Amino acid sequence: MKLLQTVAAALALTVCATATAATKPGVYVRGSLGYSHWNVKNDVEDKDYTHFALKPVVGFSNLTAVEGLSFEAFFDMDFGSKTFSDVTLTSKIFTPGFRAVYEKNMAELTGNRALKQLVPYVGAGLCFPIVVWDIDGSWSYWTGSEHISGKISESDRDIYFVLDTLGGWRYDFSKDFAATAELGIRFGTDISWSLTAGALYRFN
Q1: What mean pLDDT comes out for the span 153-176?
Q2: What is the helix, strand, coil percentage profile of the chain, to 5?
Q3: Which pTM was predicted?
Q4: How far, in Å, are 37, 38, 64, 175 from residue 200 at the CA level?
């Protein structure tokens, strides 16, 4: 009985501490533009190629007693195309997901207060890329003196389960506005990566 009371008291203290730390939860939005690199599997030829990346994020801070920990929901959009031989492969990749992010400014890490506005951060989570691809083109070959040709038109959609990781730097111009630069790496059936830059705005 005493053990149960002790456990209950410890849980109550933890909840109270978390609630105290989270009395003023914060909300922020971040938008980034850049490039991402994907392998799009298809029925003609697997190709690694670059996409234009748009990455909107909604984040929530001060939800726990852990200083510097926040949680993000994101919906990435990547658009790309690749031409090989007489065939063009185009793809649109929509990636909903969520991650936890931890940050600590350089002033705390180095003791130099001049670096307070520079903040490195790392994150990890899960996401579900939805890959929509289309192939259009033609094929032809000669058999002796006869020329044979045809058209190719295919499309499909694939959904993957992927581990999301993120590393970035933020520069705080004010308590509400910051600039960001990020490297994202995702691990699934293949490894994909992205390089983006953007801006963050806090609603405080």
Answers
A1: 92
A2: 15, 65, 20
A3: 0.79
A4: 23, 26, 21, 10
